[in-house]
Structures are given as C-alpha cells and as structure tokens.
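Email to the structure team, subject: DNA-binding helix-turn-helix protein model.

Hi all, the expression group asked for a predicted structure before they design truncation constructs. Nothing fancy, just the tokens so they can compare against earlier work. One-line instruction: predict DNA-binding helix-turn-helix protein, return tokens.
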Amino acid sequence: MYTKDYKFSDRLKTLRKSKKLTQVQISELIGVQQGTYSRWENGTLEPGLELVVKLANIFGTTTDYLLGQKPYSIISSLPLEQLDLTNIANFSKDEFDILKHSIAVSVARNKIKATELKDRVIEKISCQKKMQNF
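Reply from the structure team: attached below.
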C-alpha cells in the first residue's frame, strides 16, 4: 500500500520519537491500549480514520503525511527567500525536495521565469555565504 520509505508505521514511530514520547504516553492521549499502538508502529495493524486524525493533531502534522503522501513540512511552504541555502552542496534529499517545492511555489505565485529564479537563488547563496564569513 505504501512504499517502504513512507509506511504509516515508520512515520508514526519517527514522529513519536522526535517528540520524545513513549508508546504509553501516546496511547493514553488517544485512548487506546499500548499494545494496540505498538501494533500500529510494527505495521501489523492500522488505526481508523478518527484515530489517524488524532495522531496527526498530536504530532503537528497532516493525515496525508501519516498516510504516505509526499512529505512537505511547514518550512517547505516558506518563500524561497527565507530558506538557508549556504550549505546547498550538502543538502539531503529531503532538503532538495523542500527547495524544489519552494521553487515551484515561487514560480506559480510570482509568475517569474526560470532564468530569473535561477539568478535569485544564485544571488541568495552568494549573500548568505558572505554573511557567514563575517
């Protein structure tokens, strides 16, 4: 149903750990037994829609993300000008995905040409590197 990188169980476990919460704490917050929650993280059981919504609210994410859609965090909707591009040479795949999304949003919202956008990105990287050297 989901690709290995984006399985519900993997995302659930990653989100819980990022919030430094235990399975017991999460299960108490949503009103299920810890064993049930554990099976969700192990991939042997999936919660119903109502519980997926509760989980998304607890973790501050969307149901789409939990259910395997392409991940875009809140930062990915930031204007391109607000992204830190100083370390672009070492960006992870996720960081490049965020950059690509921001570029697409900039092009769509601002109706600018790709060459103009390229020039803006190059200028931004140059300015950020100069600021880093101060």
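The two ends are 50 Å apart (CA to CA). Residues 74-132 form one domain. Ping us if the truncation boundaries need rechecking.
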